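Course assignment 3, question 2. Fill in each field.
Student: A.L.
Task: Predict the tertiary structure for the chain below.
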Amino acid sequence: MNVRRHHISGIAVAAATALGLGTLSACSSDSAAAGNTDKFDVVASFYPMAFLAEQIGGDHVNVTSLTEPGQEPHDLEISAKQTAQLQESDAVLYLKNLQPAVDEAVGQADVKNKIDAATLTKLEDHGEVEHEHEGEEAHSEEEEHALDPHIWLDPVKYAEVAEGVAKSFEKADPDNAADYRKNADALTKKLGDLNTAFADGLKTTDSKVFFTNHAAFGYLAERYGLTQEAISGLDPESEPSPARIKELQTEAKADGVTTVFYETLVSDKTAKTLAQDAGLKTDVLDPLEGITEKSKGDDYFQVMESNLKALQSALGAK
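Answer field:
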């Protein structure tokens, strides 16, 4: 319940762009490969960080993710072996305040290049929820406020992070700086195309409100003039109150909501129960915290394209 009702107009764009976007597959989840290779060794905290490192680093980097495929990143615990292997890396790329165990391990590790993605773009507080409908008194509820870390689900913010990561790589490994710059420019162009596709694809819809399992899509919603209503807060494991469920049932009728979205790495029980009780459909909206066999795509771009199609269907895009 960490999302305010706040509409921001979509970005003006020239034309929709096809998403024929490729990926690299240099990332390894085998922590034994974390350091002491003949490449620039990068330890990434979880998938969105690992993806940036491999896209920007290309053939020059060896990327290891601390979070295994299919593992819910918020709950990650760092082993003593992983902590030791952080010491052997040339750089660590992480997102502070998303994974407390990673923050602690990085703080203790003697790594020269510590790249915190949270410092490379502006994080916002999506902790306040406001609802107002005709004939009702406006009310607001507040949970513990925190800066929303889900910046990778906004292609514009993700591109800002990519730019900062590229600069860090160029400084840390100057021999390959030209390639890092070239790769980063290609990545930011793809992210620009993705932003265009979302802005055009969600410009005209029957509804602007979507329900999701946890509050991961606040940046995406604000970027494209939508309203996210989350069953849970920023923590996907938090349990909604009965009052919140009742509120969402009322909201669905008021705003023409058709679909309750769930995700692949956490339980879909509450989302499906809400959908059944409210007579709504269900579908997957993937927060891209990890890629598994259940993911609707093999990489960031493919899954984001799938997310766009799911939102277009649920919101009645024209």
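Instructor remarks: The longest strand covers residues 40-44. The two ends are 29 Å apart (CA to CA).
Grade: pending
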